[in-house]
């Protein structure tokens, strides 16, 4: 499967989940958003720059040559480690950096849905900035994309019927 394009269900779920994640964590942490705005902006810029450099370093050398699922693990491991740190309550991690990582993930999901990008969500921002798309799976949403592509998940029309591609 080519992970570079997704249909409406996968796109919608990415946008909804990303918006809930970004807005929810921001609204839940007003002390960081308002009192530590500069640190939050710097942290978010740092996360974006990290993923752009990480993509430049690995994209053509590794991602273009490996299985899309292995590519997803390669690109997601920094985010997975940070999530482990966040939920493990490891001391010493600045709260603006934690919120910046969550915002990056949420914004990446929204952008990947808007741009119809079905690949690894953490690549959405680097791919848009670098002008390339890499065939890397999305751990969370690729299974939904498969179901949608195979015709097992279809949006419902206003009249309650199925869309134009019925199951065979």
What does this structure look like?
The chain has 168 residues and is mainly alpha-helical. The chain is 64% helix and 0% strand. It has helices spanning 8-27, 30-35, 37-63, 68-87, 95-114, 124-130, 142-149. It is globular and about 45 Å long.
Low-confidence stretches: 161-168
Number of spatially distinct domains: 1
Give the oligomer, counting copies of the same chain as homo and different chains as hetero. single chain
Q: Quickly give the structural class.
A: mainly alpha
Q: State the major sheet.
A: none
SS field, number of helical segments: 7
Share in β-strands: under 5%
Number of strands: 0
Percent helix, as a range, is: 55-70%
Output the helix-strand order.
Answer: HHHHHHH
As a whole number of angstroms, the C-alpha radius of gyration is 17 Å
Distance between the termini: 20 Å
Mean pLDDT: 82
Shape: globular
Q: What's a quick, concise take on this entry?
A:
With 168 residues, this protein is mainly alpha-helical.
Give the helices and strands, then pairings.
Layout: H1 8-27, H2 30-35, H3 37-63, H4 68-87, H5 95-114, H6 124-130, H7 142-149
Helix pairs in contact: 1-5, 3-4, 3-5, 3-6
Task: Quickly list its features.
168 residues; 64% helix; globular
